[in-house]
Write a structure and sequence with these properties.
The protein has nine helices and no strands.
Length: 250
C-alpha cells in the first residue's frame, strides 16, 4: 500500500488538536442528552470510520481525519467510562500508560519501527490505529488528572500542556530526541491540550469555564476541522512524499 497517514506539518498539529477538543465536547454533549445514544453514536461512528480507513489503499484526507475524529469521540468515552466505576484518575492514567507502552512494544517487536512513515502494510496500519486509540485514552486520563485531581482547572491545565508540548519540539530541533519519540510524545499531549481548551470554553462558570456550552464548542470545532480538511484535500500538501521525514512545526 501507499502510506496511509499524512505528512506532518503545522496544519496536521492544528487539526489534531481541534479533533481532540471536538471529541471531548461531543462526548460530553451527547452524554448530557442520553448516555445510551452517546455510546451508540460513538461506537458506531468509530467502527464506520475505521472500516472506511482500512479499506482504502492510499491516504485519503477526509477519510483519515474522519477516523481521527471518531477515535477522539470514542476514546474519550472509553476513558471516561472507567471513572463510572470509581477508579481514580491516577489509576486510569497509569493503566493507559502501560497499555500504550505494550502496544508500542508489540509494534516495535513485530515491525522493527513505530515510525508513521512505515505505515504501508495492513498490520502496521492496525498497530497505528491501536496506538492512536491508546494515546487518546491516555491523554484523556492525563487531562482529567491535571484538571480535577491536581486542582489546576481547565484554563491552567491548557496553559500547562501548551508549555509541555514544546518539549518534544525543542528536543527534536536540538537533536537530543529522535523524530519518532518526539512525534509520539507530542501526539499524546495534543489530547489533554485540546480537551482542556474545549472544557474551558464549554463548561459552566461553576466549573471555572466560560460557559459557551459543549454543543456549541463541538459544533464550532467541527466547522473549523471541515474547513481545514477541505483545504488540505484540495491543496494536497498533506500527502507524504517519498523523501519526506516527520517534522514538528516551527
Amino acid at each position: 500500500m501507499q502510506p496511509k497517514v499524512p505528512e506532518i506539518t503545522a496544519l496536521f498539529w492544528l487539526v489534531k488538536i481541534l479533533t481532540t477538543g471536538m471529541g471531548e465536547a461531543t462526548s460530553d454533549y451527547l452524554g448530557s442528552i442520553n448516555v445510551a445514544v452517546a455510546i451508540a453514536v460513538g461506537a458506531l461512528g468509530f467502527v464506520l470510520a475505521l472500516w472506511l480507513q482500512l479499506r482504502t489503499r492510499r491516504y485519503v484526507t477526509a477519510v483519515y481525519w474522519f477516523a481521527v475524529a471518531m477515535v477522539a469521540v470514542f476514546g474519550t468515552m472509553v476513558a471516561d467510562a472507567l471513572h463510572v466505576f470509581g477508579l481514580p484518575y491516577e489509576v486510569t492514567t497509569a493503566g493507559y500508560a502501560v497499555l500504550l507502552a505494550m502496544v508500542f512494544y508489540r509494534w516495535q517487536r513485530a515491525e522493527g519501527s513505530v515510525s508513521i512513515h512505515s505505515i504501508t502494510t495492513r498490520r502496521r496500519e492496525v498497530y497505528y490505529w491501536l496506538t492512536v486509540l491508546a494515546t487518546f485514552a491516555l491523554g484523556t486520563a492525563v487531562g482529567d488528572l491535571s484538571a480535577a485531581s491536581l486542582g489546576l482547572g481547565f484554563a491552567s491545565s491548557g496553559i500547562f500542556f501548551a508549555l509541555v508540548i514544546a518539549v518534544p519540539l525543542i528536543g527534536y530541533r536540538m537533536r537530543w530526541m529522535s523524530e519518532v519519540i518526539a512525534f509520539w510524545f507530542a501526539y499524546v499531549l495534543t489530547r489533554p491540550l485540546g480537551a482542556s481548551v474545549a472544557d474551558y470554553l464549554g463548561k459552566d462558570h461553576s466549573m471555572r469555564g466560560l460557559g459557551l456550552g459543549d454543543g456549541t464548542v463541538a459544533g464550532l470545532s467541527a466547522v473549523l476541522i471541515i474547513l481545514l480538511v477541505g483545504y488540505l484535500a484540495r491543496s494536497g500538501t498533506d500527502v507524504q512524499r517519498p523523501s519526506a521525514t516527520p517534522a514538528l512545526p516551527a
